[in-house]
User: Fold this.
Amino acid sequence: MESHQIQTMCANVFQIAAHSACGQMRKYTGEPYHTHPQAVAHILQVHVPEATTDMVVAAYLHDVVEDTKVTFETINFYFGGVVEGYVRGLTNGKVPRYNRDEQKRHNAFCLAAQCEEVKIIKLCDRLHNLPSVIEHDKKFAAVYVPETRHLLDTALFAVHDVLWNKLDKIVKDYQNT
Assistant:
């Protein structure tokens, strides 16, 4: 087995353990949560063949700090500073005084300042989440789709044409129904 395969396998096992320890499940489908980071990593590998091992590892780990007891320091220790930096860029900060709209705009502003690798992983994350939200929660879709549109038009504009266009099509199809 090659080094990059071992690193991505370790990241997958790590995130499965972290999300399973919390008993976290996917909203709407009831699947174990670890299937989401696996799908994000898969989308990245399929649509971004030039993705680095660090990007794939970060795709597996993108939600562990936000959703589990794993820290950035732990990610740095096991997976290195580059992966930690990507995960930091993908982790939404919380500003207690902000309502949801203010928080999402703040997060978009922060995402816009991130490197292209982080933005590409975020596109993959939204590509996996958006269809599920639209299919299973019409009320939340009315909030989530405009938030995605805002991300596309601001923080993620002109990042990766193939991924951006796929996400843009989902948003437009939703808006035209």
The CA atoms of residues 18 and 109 lie 28 Å apart. The longest helix spans residues 116-136. The domain at 3-175 is CATH 1.10.3210.10 (Hypothetical protein af1432). The chain has one domain: 3-175.
